[in-house]
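Hypothesis: this fold can be encoded by more than one sequence.
Test: take the structure tokens below, design a sequence, compare later.
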């Protein structure tokens, strides 16, 4: 067996690659994983030696606290390959920081930046054949931390496992030309003041599944969550932040302890400012968006996120009525998508220093 070890990282290579069995032209988001995974355990108050091992199941005691109390946080980031086969990450420092912000909120230990990048970069170099070039192709990276200590007492664990797994990705919404339909939430809530809405923690997603299933059954892809107090203001869509274009003004909700501080969201805001667009970051009411849809001034709605990139929304539903967005040329959504994907593919100037090369 092929083992390489340094004082901080131990690598055990897979004996055979699975890559030959993958149909890269028909990738469904998050279903296939690369040959290796990164793992590091926390115990006795510190992170231990990191390891890269062949991808596969992990053993955990059934009483591990993650199964009972949901101490689990994660990140979503992507690696890209440019025309010269160089590997790039998009604003990865922001993901690394946000992971620790999420961990802190769930009383979990932070994972050191140097160990994060040492492991991530070594993993990407080992699995570099899995990163495909070309429009829309990337490797989705899922770092996560779980409470792996056994015992069902309801208190923060003293042992954790940090892992990184990677999955080749194309568009999140399968079927590239799908018309995305969203439903504005009227009853259920994703997050509340003082809660964990800003954290990328597993429970935030679990809590959305039931209302999202109801929405799916009614023909919608996603729910756009509204504020839990009044359901009058539009917040985020669970796997993406949301932007609205009313006439030529771009609107999006400010982040708060209920809304994820999305990295694609921040990037869109920066690009909009740079382009001199009329941008308002303020609470966006359901009422104004419904009125704008009725009077024709609502030109666009789109979701943004690492997995979703920039996904135009075709229809929104509210109080039993579906509102269809107009089909227009030269959309803001296309502009942001082209800019962001162009920067990520190393084809457009990285004016803001967002890209980090994996060397
Ligand atoms: C991401 O865009 O990284 C996400 O977290 C979406 C994921 C929950 C599918």
């Amino acid at each position: 067996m092929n083992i390489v070890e340094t004082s901080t990282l131990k690598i055990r290579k897979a004996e055979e690659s699975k890559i030959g069995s993958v149909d890269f032209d028909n990738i469904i988001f998050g279903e296939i994983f690369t040959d290796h995974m990164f793992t590091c355990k926390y115990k006795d108050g510190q992170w231990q030696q990191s390891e890269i091992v062949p991808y596969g199941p992990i053993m955990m005691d059934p009483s591990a606290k993650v199964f009972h109390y949901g101490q689990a946080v994660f990140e979503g980031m992507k690696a890209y390959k440019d025309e010269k086969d160089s590997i790039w990450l998009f604003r990865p420092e922001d993901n690394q920081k946000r992971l620790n912000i999420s961990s802190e909120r769930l009383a979990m230990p932070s994972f050191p930046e140097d160990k994060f990048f040492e492991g991530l970069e070594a993993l990407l170099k080992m699995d570099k054949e899995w990163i495909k070039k070309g429009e829309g192709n990337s490797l989705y990276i899922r770092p996560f931390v779980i409470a792996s200590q056994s015992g069902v007492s309801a208190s923060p664990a003293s042992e954790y496992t940090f892992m990184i797994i990677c999955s080749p990705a194309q568009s999140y919404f399968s079927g590239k030309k799908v018309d995305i339909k969203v439903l504005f939430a009227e009853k259920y809530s994703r997050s509340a003041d003082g809660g964990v809405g800003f954290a990328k923690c597993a429970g935030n997603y679990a809590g959305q599944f039931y209302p999202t299933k109801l929405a799916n059954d009614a023909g919608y892809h996603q729910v756009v969550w509204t504020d839990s107090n009044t359901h009058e203001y539009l917040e985020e869509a669970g796997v993406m932040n949301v932007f609205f274009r009313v006439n030529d003004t771009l609107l999006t909700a400010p982040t708060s302890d209920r809304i994820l501080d999305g990295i694609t969201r921040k990037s869109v805001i920066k690009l909009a400012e740079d382009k001199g667009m009329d941008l308002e970051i303020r609470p966006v009411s359901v009422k104004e968006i419904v009125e704008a849809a009725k009077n024709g001034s609502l030109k666009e709605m789109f979701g943004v996120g690492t997995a979703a990139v920039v996904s135009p929304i075709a229809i929104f539903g509210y109080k039993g009525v579906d509102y269809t967005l107009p089909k227009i040329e030269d959309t803001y959504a296309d502009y942001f998508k082209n800019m962001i994907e162009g920067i990520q593919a190393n084809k457009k100037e990285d004016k803001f220093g967002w890209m980090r090369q994996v060397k």
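Residues 202-217 form the longest helix (16 residues). The chain has two domains: 3-169, 181-344.
Hypothesis status: open.
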